[in-house]
Amino acid sequence: MDIETLRNYCISKKGVTEGLPFGPDTLVFKVMGKMFALAGLDAIPLSVNLKCDPEKAIILREEYENNILPGYHMNKQHWNTVILDGHLKPDFIYQLIDDSYNLIIAGLSKKQQQELKDLDE
C-alpha cells in the first residue's frame, strides 16, 4: 500500500481531517480533533501508527511480528505501528484503520459523537 492509497482511505471517512502538526514528515489523520492514524512520510517501507484495543494489539503483534509492532513514539499499550511493505493484505489494513477510527469515535463525548453523526446530513 502506498501513501496515496492510505491517505485516500483515511480522508474518505466521516469527520476526518489531515495535517502535519509534528512537522513535514508525519501525516496525521484526526476525527473530531482526535488522532487515529499517523503515517511517516519518509519511512521506507511506509508505516502507519494505528490505535488498537490493548488485548488485540498483543495478539496482532504475535501473529504478524514482522509487520505489526508496538507504536513508535506512542503509548505502546494502545498503539501499533503497521509496516506497509506488501506482506499484509489491503483489506486487512483497511480493517485496522477502521478499528482505530472506531475506537476514537467510541471515546468521544456524546456531544462530539452527535456532531459527527450530524455531519453531511
UniProtKB/TrEMBL annotation:
Protein origin, superkingdom: Bacteria
Pfam families according to UniProt: YjbR (PF04237)
Annotated InterPro entries: YjbR, YjbR-like_sf, YjbR/MT2646/Rv2570-like
Protein's UniProt name: MmcQ-like protein
